Amino acid sequence: MQTPQMTTGEWLRILLLAAVWGISFFLTEICLRDLGPVTLACARVGLASFALLGIAVLKGEQLPSGLADWGPLAAMGLINNALPFSLIMWGQTRIDSGLASILNATTPLFAFVLAHLLTSDERMTFRGAAGVGIGFLGAVVLIGPSALGGLGAESWGQIAVLSAALSYALAGIFGRRLRRFSPTIAAAGMTAAASIILLPPALFLERPWNASPDGMTWVALATLALVSTAAAYIIYFRILATAGATNLLLVTFVIPVVAVLLGALALDETVTLNAIAGMLLIFIGLSVIDGRALSAFAGLRARP
Questions:
Q1: What pTM was computed for the model?
Q2: Where are the domains of the chain?
Q3: ∠ CA(18), CA(231), CA(172), 5° rounding?
């Protein structure tokens, strides 16, 4: 399958989306000082859904109605928002934001395997299998040999983020069923459904009325919801429509770089050798799957 050529504008949107999603791990770290992970996930999708629904109404788009519409939107909200957001935020109570972002970059690896198993039009090639193997080796390096001695708090945090990546990968496959909706309606519907799913556990498990968030937390939460969620989905669907799903893979290369730099500079997080080695292996695995870097290298070698 030939990858569509991208314009300068599409490259800029790729970088913007990577920055918007990369900063979400930093914003999450700030919010978790005052809010529980499920409460934070619920607030994030709730505020985002209000913004997206408002945009849909202003654009005159027809809102979803009936079980035939809300059923798949609710399923997408569960596996693309409610579950992975909660897992990542819970994981970040045990590991640094930079490490969480690197582990989250395994999403395309899971997606490649699941697409091979669950679809008939995306079969795994030898190159793809090699890329998946290299990428998962990177995840093993990240978790480190210490996990063999027993699963501690940090290991469970890492497993939670990897589970979130698996959930995102499932959502990427299931999301094909939402093609009948416009990008704004799909994003608004799934975030609204996710907020309803998350509200009961947030209320019963974390009792958010006892929280006392300060001004910095409110600013971080608003930015997380409106920029890293609502605006991010608009950018995401725009790239998907103009550049294709394969080019969206490039976003995963940049997100950890943004998150690791912010974590190190603003949160004094330590960047370990394991993290650097694991990130490089994941990037190499993604590059092998994507194929463009290998093709470019082969082209250079073929020149006289």
A1: 0.84
A2: 20-302
A3: 65
